Amino acid sequence: MENDDEKSFESSLEELEKTIQELEDGDLPLKESVDKFKKGAKLLKKCKEELKNAEISIEKIVDDDGKIDLENFI
User: Fold this and answer.
1) Which of 8, 18, 36, 70 suits 24 as a labelling partner, its CA being 20 to 30 A distant?
2) What is the DSSP letter of 5?
3) Calpha distance 9→32 (Å, rounded)
4) Facing residues of 68 across strands?
5) What is the mean pLDDT of residues 4-19?
6) Distances from the Cα of 26 to the Cαs of 20, 42, 65, in angstroms?
7) Count of the separate structural domains present in the chain
8) Number of Cβ within a 10 Å radius of residue 35
9) Rounded distance, CA 54 to CA 46, Å?
10) Are 69 and 61 in contact (CB under 8 A)?
């Protein structure tokens, strides 16, 4: 089983959505809810970091005019 750091963005996002749904359902005992909330916060942080890194990568490739700078792409 992969740990949270090894999961793909898509896998992390899917697990985060599932965790949110479980918390919204409100059927979990308090301790389990707190544990799920902590895990969800960790997954959210990971997803945000991955999105920010993707945005930075794209900004390095695309110039201010929206044109692709092939020198930075290679």
Assistant:
1) 8
2) T
3) 24
4) 62
5) 90
6) 10, 20, 48
7) 1
8) 13
9) 12
10) yes
